[in-house]
Amino acid sequence: MHVYYFAVVTMQRRTFVKVAGGASMIGLAGCTGDDDDGNENGNGGNGNGNGGNGNGNGNGGDSFPSEDLRFVVPYSAGGGSDTYARQIASVLQEVRDVTITVENHEGSGGMIGTNELVGAGRNGHDILTHNLPTIALEYLQQDIDIFDIDDLRGAAIATYATTPRMTVKNPDLDIDTYEELIERQDEIAYGTPGGTELGILQIARELHGFEPATHVQYDGGNPAGQAAASGEVDVASAPEGSFQGAVGSGDIEPLFTWSSQGSNIFDGVPTIADEEQGGFEPFDWLSETGRALWTNPEASEEALEWWESAIEDVMTSDQMQEWSDETGQNIQFDGRETTNASFVDALEGLEEDLDLEDL
Amino acid sequence: MIGALNEGISIILAGDTLLWLALGIMIGIVLGAIPGVGTSLGMAILLPLTAPLEGQDAIILLAAIYLGGNYGGSVAAILINAPGTAAAAATTLDGYPMSRKGEASRALAISAVASTLGGFIGIGFLILISPIVTRIVLQFRSQDYFLVALVGILMITLIARGPLIKGVAVGGLGLLLTTVGTSPLGLEQRYTFGTVYLFDGLNFVAILIGLFAVSEMYKLMTESGGISKGEFELGNEIVPGIRDALSRPKTIVKSSLIGIGVGAIPGAGASISTFIAYGEAVRSSGEEFGGGNPTGVAAVEACNNSTVGGSMIPTFSFGIPGGAATAVLLGGMLMHGLVPGPQLFDADLHVTYSIFFALFLGNFLILAVGLLAITRVGIVTQIDTKYIIPVVLVVALSGSYMLRTNWVDVATVLFMGIFGYYLRENDWSVIALVLGAVLGGLMESNLNRALQLSDGSFDIFVSRPLSIALTLMCFLILFGGPIKRKISETVGG
User: Fold this and answer.
1) Whole-angstrom Cα distance, residue A172 to residue A3?
2) pLDDT digits (tens, 9 = 90+) for B227-236
3) Is position A1 within any domain?
4) For B318, which of A89, A102, A225 is closest by C-beta distance?
5) CA of A50 vs chain B CAs: smallest distance (Å)
6) Which residues are registered as beta bridge partners of B363?
7) In a domain, A9, yes or no
């Protein structure tokens, strides 16, 4: 039996603890074996980190947690999700005096790791990091049948970072707006890391009539950015962090963000919804990637509350803010209600608005 | 450039940086020597522990583990035919036969000296070209990556022993293995039999462990005594080993340059560059290889350490890792706020130089540890195989599980062990299979991209000077020998 808890959450919190001027790791991780939008490079090992402090039960005498905790990372060690996970786990040990082990269960776009969480039967002692809406997209695209993703409804704990998707161009390309890009789409070679970007392309075609002459799929956002810098393709689209280094050096230039929220990293980058870009209808549910956490489907309400509270403590802690300041990783905290709502939006939006066969 | 270099050097010499460098090298050597475990796992475990360190110290620690691991991988490759890392797979070709002849310490000495020299040349060359490295990277297009992989595949014609048709057939089988899983340019599932555990395909490190380490253990089960069948003399082998390496400067320089060049190609790395370096050594020397030729060991070892420098190029310039270890290194860079990008070869060149210079110094430590300590490990080849075999099998199987926590990798190791044994016993080329398995993914994805960009036209392979040069190189590898013979015959009358 799976328990859904939408009603019990009383307060929606969307606390941007820090939207740093630095990188989001989502895009960069796309080529490090992490992430929604990149085929994995190499063979990242299975990392086990964050050796515990030997005290499995903390939390002032509460019955949860009753055993050691486990952080399941469905991507390879060293990628963006892995780095966030190890940092969060490390701070969690400090602020809650618990033991938590990070395990990488990579493969199949994070579905192997998700299956590990769903099938573990550990009553809320595991958490999984995955991305929204990517978790739903990967499940549906790959037609996964080893677990039922609906089991995770209500098991989302928090969203801890968000990254908009951005399109960049080769500096020699004389196009400055999304509208112009659409007008000249017959001559455009467009590079992406695939994954969610395929969905964005499909929606953009349906809503805005954008259909570039050539679409080339790369092994991640960074290779797509490099292809735009070298002139192999004219424009590239990926999570914005993928482009930070090359934009900084002037090898590529930001064109626009797909998300109407704009960029977290770059100043003054327009969005497709801006008038000067043509005022196009945004679809943020797909073009903003959220890093989120889930626990085991059978977790009790007590476990869910414990996790939400613990993750809030972590994300608002001085340690995380210092880490964010030092590394430029953006951090935030959205609670269960918002994250579960986003998860449901992703599941239902993908099924209703995307033609998965056509991706 | 000089100012940036001075600044980089002063960063290294200040504080505890040298200590972290030394620690990283030592950890890397140990981890690299364990088949399947590899350097990336060690780097990943240490990643969160680097949080209190200065950013550059952390990156240097991780990069030093990577460098040390590339050297350490050759130790098990030479002693027990079990490459600790993919970079050391080609070391087995002549390194292990040397151990079988009782020359393990000599091979280890060659490895230490050639690795060090390769590291010096690779990093030194990288320091020299750093200001223009981004421009060089941007010259490469998808068709060029495909052509470099094709050069690697064509090495089968040079490296594979026995009838060429058998080498080509097995190479094709290797390519076929890489088609298991989700198509790189679509969502088609190929040969996955509906199991999600095959969606990402077979792991080539697992394939390597099976083909080399496990198949060799099967073979050793039929023998008694130690691995070494020759007379083992510990002390007397080290100096000849050093001399072997130093007397092959041309091989070492050439292999080092191949290492840095091919290592810079994302997704290629040392697993390809070492085979190309080995193939070039075979082509240019005219000697017999595969039976314990020191030139084969020197070529591969010089190459795999210089590849470390090469692999830093795409990682630093565009955040594109060439493999698992550089992926973790990239994670470390991001974690410590060092954003990869062309500016690391421009405005922040001093930061990059500090890391390169640290690796340059790290090679001295590899030399010292390699000659003073590692060569002593050659004694392992004297131990009865009834003790060696269970240890290697346990390490190989558990290591393969740790690759992705996926039982498919364990099954791959076991099956490839049997298959590798069959191939060797029947004079089929294991190396051809490895080349196909390592290069297949790189070839397929880049070939598809190139043809997408050209709208299906193969003209793209002769559309730019670099592509033409690489296409020409492919033709020369295939037809250079016959053409040369024909010319000689014609000239000779």
Assistant:
1) 55
2) 877 766 666 7
3) no
4) A225
5) 7
6) none
7) no
- Residues A343 and A275 placed together within one structural domain of the fold: no
Per CB-CB distance under 8 Å, the chain A contacts of B320 are: 31, 41, 220, 222-223, 226
- Per-residue pLDDT reduced to its tens digit, B150-190: 988 888 887 777 788 888 899 999 999 999 998 877 678 89
User: Would A174 be classed as within a structural domain?
Assistant: yes
Nearest residue of chain B to residue A38 (CA atoms)? B184
Read off the pLDDT of residues A224-278 as tens digits, 9 standing for 90 and up: 999 999 999 999 999 888 898 889 889 999 999 999 989 988 889 999 999 999 9
pLDDT tens per residue across span A5-60 = 323 332 333 343 433 333 333 333 333 444 444 433 333 333 344 433 333 344 44
Supply the range of the domain harboring residue A69: 14-163+293-358
Binary contact (A245, B343; C-beta < 8 A):
yes
pLDDT at A127: 97
- Shared domain for A168 and A281, answered yes or no, is yes
Domain CATH for A71: 3.40.190.150
Residue contact A327–B319, C-beta within 8 A: no
Residue extents of the structural domains in chain B: 2-492
Q: What percent of chain B shows pLDDT beyond 90?
A: 33
Which residue in the set B139, B203, B318 is minimally distant from A245, CB to CB? B318
For B294-351, what is each residue's pLDDT tens digit? 999 999 999 988 988 888 888 888 888 767 788 888 888 877 777 788 878 777 788 8
pLDDT in tens, B206-228: 898 899 889 989 988 988 888 87
Segment 80-109 of chain A within 8 Å of chain B by CB = 80, 82-83, 86-87, 89-90, 102-109
End of a domain among A264, A285, A306?
A: A285
What pLDDT digit, counting tens, does each position of A77-118 carry?
767 788 889 889 989 999 999 999 988 888 888 999 999 999
* A28 in contact with chain B, both atoms CB, cutoff 8 A: yes
Cα separation, A106 vs A125, whole angstroms: 19
B186: nearest CA partner in chain A: A359
pLDDT in tens, B364-385: 999 999 898 887 887 888 888 8
Can you give the pLDDT at residue B37?
Answer: 65
State whether A27 and A65 are in the same domain: yes
Domain count, chain A: 2
Domain assignment present for residue A3? The answer is no
A182-223: pLDDT as tens digits: 999 999 999 998 888 999 999 999 999 999 999 999 988 888
3-state secondary structure chain B: CHHHHHHHHHHHHCCCHHHHHHHHHHHHHHHHCCCCCHHHHHHHHHCHHHCCCCHHHHHHHHHHHHHHHHHHHHHHHHHHCCCCCHHHCCHHHHHHHHHHCCCHHHHHHHHHHHHHHHHHHHHHHHHHHHHHHHHHHCCCCHHHHHHHHHHHHHCHHHHCCCCHHHHHHHHHHHHHHCCCEECCCCCCEECCCCCHHHCCCCCHHHHHHHHHHHHHHHHHCCCCCECCCCCCCHHHHHHHHHHHHHCCHHHHHHHHHHHHHHHCCCCCCHHHHHHHHHHHHHHHHCCCCCCCCHHHHHHHHHHHHHHHHHHHHHHHHHCCCCCHHHHHHHHHHHHCCCCCCHHHHCCCHHHHHHHHHHHHHHHHHHHHHHHHCHHHHHHHHHCEHHHHHHHHHHHHHHHHHHHHCCHHHHHHHHHHHHHHHHHHHCCCCHHHHHHHHHHHHHHHHHHHHHHHHCCCCHHHHHCCHHHHHHHHHHHHHHHHHHHHHHHHHHHHC
Interface of A with B in 255-314 (CB under 8 A): none
Residues of B with Cβ-Cβ distance to A222 under 8 angstroms: 318-320, 340
Q: What is the pLDDT of residue A279?
A: 95
